[in-house]
Amino acid sequence: MTQEELANKIGLSRSAYSHLENERNEPDTETLNKLASFHNVSVDYLLGRTPVKNINANFSEQEETDIQKEVERLLSDVKKGNYVLEGEELSEDAKESLRGAFENAVRTAILINRNTK
Known about the structure:
The protein has six helices and two strands, in the order H-H-H-H-H-E-E-H.
């Protein structure tokens, strides 16, 4: 695929894409998201923050079940009210945020573990 073809697919001019490729410009958040979607990788992977290309890799049905069980285990203290931050019990929004973070952490750990075997 040419620079021009890829640039068109993500809504950039060829010259703007060329500047990104040659590190003359840095992509904005929207462009990073478009590039990650196009290449089916995470933004964190594009930025070199993780060796895991895509946290949403295909997991088997059993793996999905195991992931959810592990997330529930990690959240058990939070649900019981035993997890306090800054002296306060977490709001429901904060608890939901932790759920997402725990799920991403478990998925990432599984994928990293697969790649190190």
